[in-house]
Every structure is written in structure tokens, then in C-alpha cells.
Amino acid sequence: MKKLLCVLCIAALLCSCAFAEDIDLSGLSFQELEALRNRCLLEMMQRDEWQEVEVPAGVWEIGVDIPAGHWSFRAGTKHSQWNDVYISYGDVLEFGGKTINVSKSSFWFSHTFDNARPEYDLELTTGYLVVSFGSIIVTPYTGKPDLGFKW
Fold first, then answer.
1. What is the pTM of this model?
2. How does strand 99-100 pair with strand 93-94?
3. What residue ranges in 1-127 does DSSP mark as E strands?
């Protein structure tokens, strides 16, 4: 009897997983789809696979200190007296290994200016990430928000 119950439970689980892939979303309104996307993102953020790491000021090697991948960055809680945080990303270090020679990308985060961009995303492949004047919070990139254009 226990074996039959286990088999039935496994079969029900497999059917529900197959059903989840075949959900027809075409009947939902734009607002309902947007709400569903936000609920999915919030649920993903609760999972063990989600990472949110505060990276302090320093020189960090991609693939050694920080995994390669597409990441989102925002200013961390620890910052300098100027309330700014600066990051740069590139392949070659100079000045005793403290700065990037030719930057692939660089961003300023400001805690004092309301018009400063609060978050950046960047695909890290190889090289170094240099964080100056404070810390940054790194999370998995979840994609750009839908602006609502009809294509």
C-alpha cells in the first residue's frame, strides 16, 4: 500500500511539473502578467540559488574572487565620507595593482545625489573589478524592466 501511495505521489508531481510548462498565459492582461513576473522574481529572491553579496573596496579578480557572469550592482552600505562609490572593470592593472589600465566599464554610485543612477548591470568575463571609496552590492542580473512598448 505504501509503495502504491509513493508511486501515485511521484506521478502527481511529474504531472504538475509538466503542467507548469504548458500554462497558457495568453488570457492574462498586461497588468496580470506584470504582477506574475514580479511575484516570480520575489519568489526567486527567496531561494537558496539567489545571491546578494556585499563586496568591499578592493581589487577583485573575475573567476577567482567573483564568479564570471551577468551581475547587477548598486551602492553598498559602507561608503566613504564623500558618500560615493566607484567601480571599474578591465583586464590590466596598473599603479601597483590598484587601478585598471584601460577600463572596459566604470560607474559612479552616489548616496548624496537624487539623480544618480541607482543600479548598473555588467557582464563580467575575465579581468578585474576595482571597487573604490566604499562597498557595492552584487546580485544576479534579472533583465531590464519591460517598458511597455508594443513590438
1. 0.62
2. antiparallel
3. 53-55, 58-61, 69-79, 84-90, 93-94, 99-100, 103-110, 119-124
